[in-house]
Amino acid sequence: MSKPTPETPFAAYPRRPARFAASLGSTVVVIPHPDDEALGCGGLLALLRRAGHAVRAVLVSDGTMSHPASRAFPPAARRAVRETELRLALSILGVEDENLLTLGLPDSQVPGTGPAVEAAVEKLRDLLREQPPATILVPWRRDSHPDHRATSQLVDTALAGLPTPPRRLEYVVWAWQRAAPADLPRPADAVTGFRLHIGPVLAQKQRAIAAHRSQIAPGVFTDDPAGFLLSAEMLAHFAGPYEVFLEPAAPTNAG
Fold this sequence. Notes:
Rossmann fold; 8-stranded mixed sheet; alpha/beta; globular
C-alpha cells in the first residue's frame, strides 16, 4: 500500500487556527486502541480542555494484541499496562480519569456484528444520552486498520439511535502510513478536510504519545521481539504542528 505524500489531499487542506477548538463544545473521543487518542487528536483534546470544554473518552478494544507472544505479560497484564498508559496520556492532555469508559472488545478483532458489539453500542449510546456532547471524534472511516473501521461502524450504529447526533469529526492515524488510494477521502464521501493548528499544545501531545511506553522502542513487553512498536517514520507524522480532520456533510456509513 502506498504512503500518503505531500501530493495527497492532506497537504492541500485549509488550515484552521487553534482557537477553532473552542467552537466544538463538549466532546467525546472514541479510541480504537490506547495511543490512537494521542496520535490522531491529542492536540485537539488538549485545546478543548484549555478552552474549558468537557472531554470524555471511550476505549473500544482491550489493547492486548500488540505483543501477543509475551509470557511475562499475559493478556490481562498487557491490558492493564495499556490502560494505565492511556489514563496517563489522557491526564497529560487534561482529561480526567473518571471520564474514561472502556468497552473491552478484542484487540485486532473488533467485531462488526454480534452480541458483544450490540452491548458496546448500548454502552456508548447510554453515555451519549446521559450527557449529550456537542462533538464526537471518531477514526477516519477507512483508516488503514480493521479495528479503526469497525470502531467507525460501531459509532455509526450508536449515533443512528439518537434523536440529535453530535457534530462528527474523523481523525487520521494509519491513513498517513498505510493508506491505499481507495482508503483516502474521495468526492463520494462528501467530507470536508482541514488541518488544525496545534502548535500551542504540541509539547503536551508529544508527552501524551510518550506515555504509551509499551508502543515505543525499547518498549515494555520486551520478551516479544516480534511485537508491534511505532516506527520513527510513523511517529514523524505526529510531530508537526497540525492535525488532520474530516467532517461529513451528512451522516454516512463507513464503507
